[in-house]
Amino acid sequence: MNAAGTVQPERGPRVRTALVTGANRGLGRAVAAELHSRGFEVVVSARDGARAREAAAGLGRSVRHVALDVTDPASVTAAARALPEVDVLVSNAGVLLDTGADPLTVEPELVERTMAVNLLGSWRVAQAFLPAMIDRGWGRLVFVSSATGSFTAGLFIGCPAYSVSKAALNGLTQMLAAHTEGTGVLVNAVNPGQTKTRMMPSATRTAEESAIAVADAVTLPDSGPTGTFRRGDRLIGW
């Protein structure tokens, strides 16, 4: 157990395998790098298999890659068949398409595309990988969410589709946590905060800094919480 109260993955023949979606750049790549540094066997995924391969090569020879488009059922099914040993799923793939819009003017097509990735894509990969974790009696599912989807803080109307998609993702977190309670699988959502990526270039927090909070949720001990919304070691209201 480290100073943050989290545990390291077991070494040797039982090293845990972690799959990170949308990991070819930005926060996803930083999360993959952080988990790799903590001893996980990491699989980098992206819609474009070549970009996933390039990102994996840059993280280390032991890092694997897989093509995975969360909006494509066939792609998700193929990835799940190729990776039956996944113990940890970090559902990071997401889009922000409606910055500056408002609920009455945002194009419905943008709402559909946003929900297809941020909610349905996350739901699809959870359905593909969670059952095997439950069968093995151990697993971690971490959704990368956002405070824009918190009813406690107030949904942010400046990107309505994104905010609603993250609110729905938070709801999915609670449902899956309830469904997996007592199975050895922990399901939590993390708000990494505004992070400097292609999605949010004006932010000052680096992807590497934000990745620590996501990795800490992955390395919660077996007695750790499930069904929570987290910012580092602090809980956030739904």
TrEMBL record:
The keyword Oxidoreductase applies. It comes from the Bacteria. Keywords: Oxidoreductase. Gene3D superfamilies: NAD(P)-binding Rossmann-like Domain. InterPro entries: KR_dom (IPR057326), NAD(P)-bd_dom_sf (IPR036291), SDR_fam (IPR002347). Residues 16-195 form the Ketoreductase domain. Belongs to the short-chain dehydrogenases/reductases (SDR) family. This is SDR family NAD(P)-dependent oxidoreductase.
